[in-house]
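Run folding on both entries below.
>entry_1
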Amino acid sequence: MAQTIKKLLNYYLTQYPITEYLELFKNIIFDDILKAHEKEFAEKNKEHKEQLKIMYEQFKHDKELEICQYKFEIEQQQLYKEDFDLTCYAECNCDGEGCGYGLKDNLKYDKLESKDVK
């Protein structure tokens, strides 16, 4: 009798490999698990996208603040005469025989304070 059962099992396993059933069973179980948790996965994915959006908005806001602060600092910076290299520009009014020179307007430069005054 033991030999008959062994023969039957061998015949059954050769005709219907157990690995196919295990794969089928595993796929069915995984599908059931995925279906059971599909809603949870969708919610977590939605939360993740919302968190990324919030982080992006915060980063964008921080960069805008940084740019505004930098702009404000530049606007508040005091300029002195010593911060510039003084160069005299001249316009040439050549009429063939001789040349006449007139200096360009330097009023903005003259209005700047000197570091020594402060």
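>entry_2
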Amino acid sequence: MEPSSMSKPIIASKTTVEWREKKYKDEISNLTQKNGWSPSQPLCLYKDFWFYPFFLQGALYARDHFQAQPNDVFICSSMKTGCTWIKSLCFSIATRSQFDDSTSPLRTTVPHDCIPFLEFGEYFTAQGPKIPLFASHLPYTCLPESVIDLGCKIIYLCRDPKDTYVSMWHFFRKVVATTTPGDEDSFVSNEEGFELFCKGLSSYGPYWDHVLGYWKASLERPDKILFFKYEDLKKETEACVRKLAEFLECPFSIEEEREGTVQKIIKFCSFESLSNLEVNKTGKQVKGRGRFVENNKYFRKGKVGDWKNYLSAEMDELENDRVFVNQPWNFNKALLALNDYDGLEALESIPFEITPFWVRIYGLPLRMMNEKIGVAVGEAVGPVLEAESLNAHTSRSPGSEGSHQRGSFGGFISPNHGARAACSGIRGSGSQSVPSKSVTGGGAAFQNHVDSMVLRGKSVARALTYEDQLCEIISRIDGRVAVKTPRFQGDGSSDNRRRDARFEGCYG
């Protein structure tokens, strides 16, 4: 990546921060608010995500004033998913023609100042070359419009939610002690913080919705959005660094490969190397109005699976028993479809035992579309108080016994509400779909909106449909990667409605 024109830098100052606070005070005060992790900092709901006011002020400022350029690249993530590391890697890759590890600005500047954050409103003029790299913790739907409209490239990094939570809890607890003295004594406990995190009440949360926004966008624009997992970056660092270089349009040459440039960048940007630099041991990052973060707070452990040292078995089970709405990978569980109704105000991570919802299975062989299978699936989710025969609302289409047909099972699962099963019908070559029918009410709604969830066991196909148009199919889970089949857009004609669109679910 060559030095080039950048989006106009804005130098943050006390005046800028004070002006921002005054300008957006009324807008923020009218938002839904809930208690956050610190007593003096409530969480504000903006576009279905929770923000601390200071971060939201910067997000609104970027919304109104930031104008991206077509060649800008954005490194995006939720908080505490490895952003410091991937920033240093991207910066080193993009500037390697001008610096080596002995002259890199990273030796004297924290990575967050080399690649500035959008929502902090602090687009510092880099001490090194001007490169079109920016970072953001903003959800995909909250990015400035110009970023999406211009088709800017995005690199997204996600991480195991339990490791993300542990890192976030430690970070905020330490930062609160330096930015708001007195609050550290009433900062949420580990158990309280984890419960809030599971409910989506965390900075830029709900976490899974944050991840899903970018994941879906990466499926729609794979040439523009590169989706990474922290665990993969740790396990296959060299391969990921090469992929980053390709995406940044500055691939490593044969000569660089021969000279070990990839390995040198990895070593220089390692946790051990960066955390031991003087700037990261003793430096501070100014946040305006007397706020600052000590650079060493950005470096804790950088390990995979460290959550096991902080979360109890009960807390782990709590996380496993949550419906993480819209989760994009399956952690060795099955991908099903979830809709929740009954007056819930917003989709969020919610306990099974208090939530009525529909469960749908796609791709079942006709021989398996029966009450016994429906009950078995329902019991894997929660108590099934009653089930109706799946075949009661289906019409069989021509085809060999056991072939995969388009179909679904819906179950209303809740100990607090009656549970019944209803099938929305099957579609195969030459067959008409049967309208969804529910003996509990509201069943037709799930035809128009399906959100994914995870459940133990085997992979199951999922689709997102709207007005008889098949918009998206995720046919199976291969490892932790969702395999998507080609989509089609129907025009509502009977021919398209009868089109054979098979869901190849994985059963065994």
